[in-house]
Write a structure and sequence with these properties.
alpha+beta; Hexokinase, domain 1; Nucleotidyltransferase, domain 5; 5-stranded mixed beta sheet; 15 helices; 11 strands; glucokinase activity; ATPase_NBD; nucleotide-binding; Phosphotransferase
Length: 407
């Protein structure tokens, strides 16, 4: 086996600065197209206005709720703010959703959620308070306003009838009424990307971008409202809005064809959604382990690795988890015995948080690509889907009270 032969086989996976700059240029072009109603259908980026326009200042006070629904468990959280960032307190409970609630009538599902909310506020003795709630709903939606989102399609095993095409905020509000809960006001519906930005902005008011790097990937950012030609809301201050890019789909219009490798094509062709979510398939935690498995199998088949001998674990699609990649990169060069063990063991991890080099590699490459006068830093968001949702509720409640006072 020649190391030069291995490097040559892997070379298509190594992008030059020129290629990365071209990718960024194409991302910006897709963003511009997606913000224009006349060209939005030409873009692979949906560029969805979230209707979240104000960022937290750190001076917010009060108790605020969050409901985080995106899988077979959901969480209810309450944060207590006293106007100082350092003293933000959080209490939370996790509730399981059984199979029948996932596939039965949607009223039953939302009634159960409302019952859990009622139990939560009773347990924490806040049933007498007026509570603003931020609703993180991690399913495909068409967002119409800060408190209005139509469910396009259930995913993740949910099939609750009577919900698709309906406003999920109205479904939750109706369930709260049926359960006799009168002190909770849904102030916002959002996804976890927006929550990530808000949770970080609470601690760092210069934060303008939220990025998800986990099982999937997505980003959002604060955009000048003058550039959002798709905006249908009121044009007043602040002259900005958070845009959800849905950039996991970048490349679906062919923008990434010039860097796509044989490994990417194999993973895409055997996926559940060929030709869709191409960027996500190149970089997210759900697929990185599989990319490595496909690369290893290719090297083995070419006789460049393991003397051409495959293993049962490597032969099975998606059986080489991304967490193995993180652990292997954490090991020193003299840990070959442990690397062999990884092929028969299971370890746990998450892409950005646990990969030993992801953050440093991002920082190094961003520094190389952007003008030297530009400054940036990366900060790990704490509980964007939960804490961030409650902060959106806090900001929305504050904005509402301010506008009422002005009138």
């Amino acid at each position: 086996m020649s190391s030069d032969e291995v490097k040559a086989a892997l070379q298509p996976l190594v992008l030059s600065d020129e290629q990365l700059i071209e990718v960024s240029r194409r991302v910006l072009k897709a963003m511009e197209l997606g913000l224009n109603p006349h060209t939005k259908n030409e873009s692979s980026l949906k560029m969805i206005p979230t209707f979240v326009r104000s960022l937290p200042t750190g001076a917010e006070t009060g108790k605020f709720l969050a409901l985080d629904l995106g899988g077979t468990n959901f969480r209810v959280l309450m944060i207590t703010l006293d106007g100082t960032v350092a003293n933000c307190q959080m209490q939370s409970e996790t509730y399981a959703i059984d199979k029948q609630q996932m596939i039965g009538p949607s009223n039953d599902l939302f009634d159960y959620i409302a019952e859990c909310l009622k139990s939560f506020i009773t347990t924490h003795e806040v049933e007498h308070l007026r509570l603003a709630l931020g609703f993180t709903f991690s399913f495909p939606c068409d967002q119409l306003a800060l408190t209005s989102a139509l469910l396009i399609k259930w995913t993740k095993g949910f099939k609750a009838s009577g919900a698709e095409g309906q406003d999920v905020v109205r479904l939750l509000e109706a369930a709260l009424i049926r359960k006799g809960v009168k002190n909770i006001e849904v102030c916002a519906v959002l996804n976890d990307t927006t929550g990530t930005l808000m949770a970080t902005a609470y601690h760092c008011n210069t934060c303008l971008v939220g990025l998800i790097l986990g099982t999937g990937t997505n980003s959002c950012y604060v955009e000048n409202l003058d550039n959002v030609l798709t905006w249908t809301g009121v044009r007043d201050e602040p002259n900005q809005v958070i845009i959800n890019t849905e950039w996991g789909a970048f490349g679906d219009a062919g923008e990434l064809d010039f860097i796509t490798t044989e490994f990417d094509n194999e993973i895409d062709s055997l996926s559940l959604n060929p030709k869709f979510q191409l960027f996500e398939k190149m970089i997210s935690g759900m697929y990185l382990g599989e990319i490595m498995r496909v690369v290893l199998v290719s090297l083995i088949n070419k006789g460049l690795l393991f003397n051409g001998a495959n293993s049962p674990k490597l032969a099975k699609p998606y059986d080489f988890a991304t967490k193995y990649v993180s652990e292997i990169e954490s090991l020193s060069s003299n840990s070959s015995g442990r690397i062999k063990e990884i092929f028969v063991e299971h370890v746990d991890g998450s892409l950005y948080r646990f990969h030993p080099n992801f953050k440093s590699l991002m920082e190094k490459k961003i520094t190389e690509l952007i003008p030297s006068e530009n400054e940036f830093f990366l900060m790990l968001s704490e509980d964007g889907s939960g804490r961030g949702a409650a902060l959106v509720a806090a900001v929305a409640s504050h904005d509402l009270h301010r506008k009422l006072a002005e009138t």
